[in-house]
Amino acid sequence: MTSNHESGGRLSPAEGRSSLTLTIDDEPVQAFAGETVATVLLALGRRAFRYTDRFHAPRGLFCGMGVCFDCLVTVDGQPNVRACMTPVRAGMVIETGERVDA
Amino acid sequence: MTDRYDVIVVGGGMLGLSTAYHLARRGARTLLLQADDLGGGSSAACTGRAQVAEGHLDPLNLRLIREGMARLETLEEELGATFEWRRMGFLALINSQHLWDAWTERAAALTAAGISTEMLDQAALREAEPYLNADGFLGAAYSLEGLLNPFRFCSAYVGAARRHGARLRPRTPVTGIRLAGTRIAAVEARTERFEADHVAIMCGAWTAPVARLAGVELPIRHTHAEALVTEPVALPLDHTIELANFYETIHGKDRAVSVGFSRDAHGSLVVTEAVTKTTGLHRQTSAWGLAGMAADLLRLYPALAGVRVVRAWGIPTPFSPDDEPVVGWVPGRDNLFVAAAFLETITAVPLISDWMAGMILGQAPPVDLSLYSPARFTPGRGANYDKQS
Amino acid sequence: MPELIELAVVGAGPAGLAAAAEASDLGVPVTLIDIFPQPGGQYFKQTPAELGGEPDEHARPLFQAADRKDVRAITETAVWGIFAEEDCYLLCLYGPPGTPRRLHARKILLAPGAHDLPVPFPGWTLPGVMTAGAALNLVKHQRLLPGRRILLSGTGPLQLILAQRLIDAGGEVVAVLDANPFPWRGWRHAPAAWGQWERLAEGWAAWRTMRRARTPLRWSHVVRRAEGSGQVERAVIGAVQGDAVETVAVDTICLGHGFTPAVQLARQAGCQQRYDPGQGVYLPVRDEWLQTTLPGLFVAGDGAGIGGKDVALWEGRLAALGAAGQLGRPVAPDRVARVQRELARQRRFAAVLLALFPASAHLGDLLTDDTVLCRCEEITVGEIRRVIDEGATTLNAVRMVTRAGMGRCQGRMCGGPVIELLARALGQPVETLGEVTPRPPVIPVPLDGLLEEEL
Hints:
The complex is a heterotrimer. Chain A is mostly beta strands. Helix content of chain A is 7%, strand content 27%. In chain A, strands 2-1-7-5-6 form a 5-stranded mixed β-sheet, covered by helices on one side. In chain A, a hairpin with a 2-residue loop joins β1 (19-24) and β2 (27-32). Chain C is globular and about 65 Å long. The model of chain C has no long low-confidence stretch (mean pLDDT 94). In chain C, strands 1, 2, 3, 4, 5, 6 and 19 form a 7-stranded mixed β-sheet that branches. In chain C, strands 8-15-9-10-11 form a 5-stranded parallel β-sheet. In chain C, strands 12-13-14 form a 3-stranded antiparallel β-sheet, with no helix packed on it. Chain C has 11 helices and 22 strands. In chain C, a hairpin with a 4-residue loop joins β17 and β18 (281-284). Classes of the chains: A mainly beta, B alpha/beta, C alpha/beta.
């Protein structure tokens, strides 16, 4: 997965934040309490959260406030969850990628 | 300035559009007037099911269903447009012995008429629908029906009708019908006036109010049906599902839910049906209807709990006192034809519209349609207006 | 039977919070419902405490309103339908376990706010293209830079504020493009800006930050196309009218063309609407108390027409006074007069901004046949144009045949663009092209969320 900038983009220093571990596409990932799933993915340089059904086009964060339903990922087995509206929790299992029907 | 036609079709849902196509194809100068968008009304709010197993079992209806399905198989080619036509297995879930017996008889009659229908016991039902909570069901009746996209179905008729020279006017509600004695002299749409040799009213649930403009009282009433549609669903749900006890559930109540669903080409579930009997002609949905359909669906398919509902709608559905369609010339008027209140509409449409176009232009239909004639409602003929419970 | 409450306030942004405080001051118990975990809406969005969030000084008294003992805050909860009953309204709610599913309310005050105005162009669906609101949320409340080389395209002073934030956070803002020409006529409106010192100071500070960073502000310019493989890599920029273009390397494009009101709930409830050509959208018809044509149902703030956070605050207060009066509370005429005066003042300033920075009429020129217009169902401009050529003359007809607007966003992203495309293709004003009445649920709700009781 290419990105135009290195992993990161987070502004505050890591100290002082409460860190937790979750799984993204079978890889363990460190995140911070208060972040959304979208934030964690973007911080990893992952801009494409899914691929569409018709044109197999990559989609990621667009509106950031839960109205566009583009930023869909699978969270703890539940498909089509809006990453921008989902705060991370320790042990959360996130899957990105191909279209997943409900 | 008045426009003159051979036929004016009032009503631009699937029945009106297909009839206009067949009229134009026969060379008739045809005008169609539709109150809102072409293919609107109930046609825009149905599941797209081409049903085969749930209608009347008289020879006329059986023939209409059998030949209607055959016509549907080649219709995309005939109209030069696709509408997601496919065959789809149908299951009527049966929860009582008397319904099992009734359906066993029905299945035999349908099969004998060329509409193959079989009975599945509970074990076979579970195998056919592994996600269904089949507790409480004795089994199901199974038949192979059809499914299509109703918007594209209507669009296909729109394109074909226009290619054959029909004039289709959406957003043109009929506001008046002028008589000269017992003959319809003109149809008015606000400031416009149209004349024709024959007028056909095919307005679904709005047929009776429009016919009233011509001074005719037709006993076509309506129930109000609510439906909802979900986001695409991953579960392998490969049948259209209905509950066999639909009429029992609704009997004697002003409103009731009898759940069913089918799955569109997109993967979304179209879930029906919350029925209200005594209400005006409107398209509202209710909290009761949505919650009721959801509750009943989840009792049958608990795995669907997290699937999101994206849209809902409500639509009036017409019916006649004896539940047979109303098709034919209206007594007391020289040139008024009416068609409404089918039970298995989509299956009937391609064929009946062809027959009706012929009738309107003076040809006898290939079969005797007097069973459907509005003349059966004329006072003195002994029609029973209160059969519908 | 659902619990009967006196006043439901739907939305805890500035309008909702101000309304809750005002009603509570008059002794009306308030139920304040919002979809986010913390009150504030978009304008007063709160940074999560775990990420070092401190409440905005301006918003602090409003948040204190939400903490009052007679204000019951129901958070993370959506109102998906409103139904008029004989002497009250039924609200249908969906929220976390323990949240009521149904409420009866004597009065409802809707304060649903708005969302960023979607302006499609070729490539707008590429990852890395996001709304200005999304970018602001990331940098301000999620403490994340949305990208390294960022381009802002839109209109209005809020873009400068976003640019400042991104620059201060270490991002390179390649340019800020404003689709409108330089607001020469702004001088005529100077009197309306009187008293708006803080806003003017904010704008000035943002401008200075941009100057220091050598970030250009280019008037009458817009992103014409976003390009890249898998995500944004380049932006093709040009004048809004004209052919000359240039290509710049960017990894993020933030679209800030303004906002569009969230009118779905008011419409679903059955309020009468009227087309507002200035805002390019149907808005609920309201009386002097901001009550709609449904008695006892009020709409305040951006949800009834874009006016910004200060208009929202005073509208919330006015509508609350209206509702409180209907509930028999003693409403002081002095207070009403003051609220009306402040509201009028804020509306004057808001009107200036809207006049100087309207949604440009030429943005429709950017569309090519391959532009995806309906993001959810991936329906292109070309397909919609074809259906229009074949005779579709209303929004509903286009929708029925193409599926545009039938996806999960329920037409929020494409509804406006489709109707504008239709208007241009037919050469007809938008008001003649019909509407689609939202049905419940006005946001997607899981099947088990529709039930009256939790499973």
